[in-house]
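User: Before I run my own analysis I want an independent prediction to cross-check against. Here's the chain; please return only the structure tokens and, at the end, one sentence I can use as a sanity check.
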Amino acid sequence: MKNRLILAAIAALTFLGDMYPAAADDRQLPLPDLTGLAGEEAQAFYLALDAVVWGYPIVFFEDLMRGRAAPDAEEKTGNPGSQVNELARVRQLRGPEYTQIATPNNDTLYIESFMDLSREPMVLTVPAVDEDRYYSIQLWDPNGDTFAYIGTLTTGRDAGAYALVGPNWTGALPEGLPRIDSPYVNAVYWGRVGVKGPDDVGRANEIQDGMWITPLSAYPSETEVPVDVAYSQARVEYTPPADLPEDLLFYDKLAHALQFTPPKPKQDAVLADSLEQIGFTDDNTRFDPTTLSDAEKSGLAKAYLFANHIMDVNAATTGEEINGWRWSRHAGIMGTDYLFRATWAKWFTGGNSPDEAIYMDGRKDTDGAALDGNKSYTLRFEADALPNVSAFWSLSMYDGATGAFVANPINRYSIGTYTPGLVYEDDGALEITIQNAEPEDAKAEANWLPAPEGQFYMNLRLYGPDDSLANGTWAPPPVQKTTQ
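Assistant: Structure tokens:
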């Protein structure tokens, strides 16, 4: 019966394959051959499939933190390196050179830190910002769930300091220092400073410089204090066993990650208990493949590949669809929706919750066909149907296989509120041209969002959205194909 269910699942997922071209990098993996899956291999497969989907976010979290703390972090990732509890400031808007996470934005400058709260709270300091300036500090846990915000839409525009407190700390905070509780000893400080066009980057950099992290023991401080590099390097240290098969690496990483982000007793108990059947020992903090048969090892290897495929398909099918665009009311706060949580980590790392910003994923035109750079499209917002936001909106372009921005001759990776030179119709409507070739018409060229030659997807971001999308009084326009 289980074999039939798996084969039925493959059949159901295969029709969505045109949404995803052949793997171009390690973000997309090949679909394993599950024909004849039975016995020990099948049992290991089913258990491991759950384990991969459940554990993917915390493994990804550890990989990101370790990558940021590496000596060659900027060279490898395009992102400034930073130790644990150290703030990294991304000084320029991201472009196609940045590939560490999928679907980054080109609207804000990032301020990021992977934080360890096991020793003491960390105090986050923010400056006062301009009246029309959007900024937010999103705090999310290793599973990708957002648990707090500091910023213009939540705490306002005034300067301030906030203590981020881990679950095991029992001390007292100084009077008047607001407290934010983290559900785990690790958390991410994921800040964004809005940039109002290329000429505004310098001012956004000044705001970044007014943000820093201070250990509570060093608070108050008017500047950043030196980071404990030795502690940081010890925290991120990970070396897989030399004899570990490459196709089982994920499971060793999962055991390592569970040392720092253990399962929640009630929420994750059943799944965590099953890990011992697929090689996990020492309270699930060690993976020992020597306890597994060759058939079981094969099941684990296939489960990792298949779980990744399910995440890829889920990215194109989850949530609510409106005019070909998908969004989720649960984005950024996934809880026990383990598949969506894994998908979010893989394809939409660090995405906001809908109260702060809405992300609408566009992958097909009005005919239901996958978006293809060999064709031309338009996206037309009528004058009374532009996005309803208190901050700003943007439409970004991504390569369909890698999730990265697309290099193009005008270096335009997104288009929206702050794009200079957009041409509106006399009645206020805005029509965006989406294609690979440079348009010949002057207006179309001004409103051109360049696409790659192959498949692509787009993300429509609404910063500071109202409730018109949620209550059905506004919808984004469909992507209209203009050439065959």
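Sanity check: The chain has eleven helices and 21 strands.
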